[in-house]
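Anyone have tokens for Acyltransferase? Sequence:
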Amino acid sequence: MPKSKNTFSSWRGRLVQRAVHAGWAWVQRTGSVTAERPGRFRFGALGVHTRLAFPLGTVFGEPWIHVGSHCIVGEQVTLTAGLMPDLDLGPEPILRIGDGVVLGRGSHVIADTTVTIGSDCYFGPYVYVTSTNHSYDDPHEPIGKQWPRMEPVAIGPGCWIGTGAVILPGARIGRNVVVAAGAVVRGVVPDHAVVAGAPARVVRRWTAEDGWQPPLRTPAPVPIPEGATAEQLNALAGLDEETAAKLAELDEDAAGRLAGLD
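Reply: yep, here.
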């Protein structure tokens, strides 16, 4: 038999749910870390319009962490400088993050020695960057008790680091490099390269002489026309597939006139 609906309980449940969601949104806003509201953290530098989302991951050694402006650090991101908290690491920063960097949710940047991330780098979720690796030289000693190896890590500006990628000690990644999801990177990666695999290898590269080799399989995306308004873009987004295909067949100027973007 159908169950009778308890209108009062349903109404009360929705009210409680809304209150919980509103409360959590308030906690996220209030708990986020910015230069104006750093909370208990004392970063060596924290740029304007940079925000560390709440809840944070593990953060320590922040006096030796320099973060640029206009950065977005996602929830549960770990940022550490030094092997453990409360160490004196000297006068120079250990972890440097440039301007406009995005660190995806759950990522880790472990800087026991120098780690540098260039400006305008975008990290997917759960990326792991470390300057330290376990050693296993002594076959009779547990690996976790052996002194680790440390090498500086440098990631050039403009890179895209895919979900779940691992950047190992000693990695030197050039500018505008794509690191595929799940790749494990060590050693030197040249500028304008795409790397994939474990260990990662170069699968595509751009040079001024030869362009992209192997050639790209898909055409480059068409940038949004200058001066396009939000209303015009919304109207374009609502086009059906047939109309959009017809517009794509037209030359650029005609497409712009039909879309009202000239």
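The helical segments are 7-31, 230-237, 241-249, 252-259.
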